[in-house]
Amino acid sequence: MQIEIALPDDLARDLTAKWGNLERQILEIVVVQAYRDRVISAGKVRQLLGMATRLEVDAFLKQKGAFLHYDQSELEADRQTHEQLRHEGKLSLLYWLCLLRLATFSV
Questions:
Q1: What is the rounded distance in angstroms from the CA atom of residue 66 to the CA atom of residue 37?
Q2: Is position 3 within any domain?
Q3: Are 85 and 57 part of one and the same domain?
Q4: What pLDDT does residue 104 have?
Q5: What pLDDT digit, counting tens, does each position of 1-32 carry?
Q6: Residue at 31 is within a domain
Q7: Lesser CB count within 10 Å: N end or C end of the chain?
Q8: 4 in a domain, yes or no?
Q9: Which DSSP string do the residues of the chain spell out, in sequence order?
Q10: pLDDT 10s digits, 52-91
Q11: Residues 59 and 86 in one domain
């Protein structure tokens, strides 16, 4: 869908001078707000903004002050998965990277 926004020329000029690519900045603003409102997922953020990795999305959202949607039930599910993997001896570097990511977002 194409949406046109009428901006006074001086405002468009000032915003472009400050933000650079005005269309991209407006898209990012809409995408971040949609994520905050739980209209879209982090995966959709990645797709809409053409990001290569989930870590890139996480860093972008953190920079914008839109933190991960991660509630107590998801934490409990992850804890149970961890216990199962630990019991099976299948813990990997991925687990430690996830812990690092969670620690980064809890500060």
A1: 10
A2: no
A3: no
A4: 66
A5: 888 989 999 999 999 999 999 999 999 999 99
A6: yes
A7: N
A8: no
A9: --------HHHHHHHHHHHS-HHHHHHHHHHHHHHHTTSS-HHHHHHHHT-S-HHHHHHHHHHTT------HHHHHHHHHHHHHHHHHT---HHHHHHHHHHHHHT-
A10: 998 999 999 999 999 887 778 878 888 888 888 878 766 7
A11: no
Q: How far apart are CA 80 and CA 85, in angstroms?
A: 9
- Give the number of domains in the chain: 2
Is the pLDDT at 107 greater than 60? The verdict is no
- Domain shared by 92 and 56, yes or no: no
Structure tokens of 90? Answer: 């299948």
Q: Report if residue 85 sits inside a domain.
A: yes
20 and 53, same domain (yes or no): yes
Q: What is the pTM of this model?
A: 0.65
Name which of 98, 32, 94 is nearest 60 in CA terms: 32
State the pLDDT at residue 102.
Answer: 72
Would you say 105 and 68 are in contact if contact means Cβ atoms under 8 Å apart?
A: yes
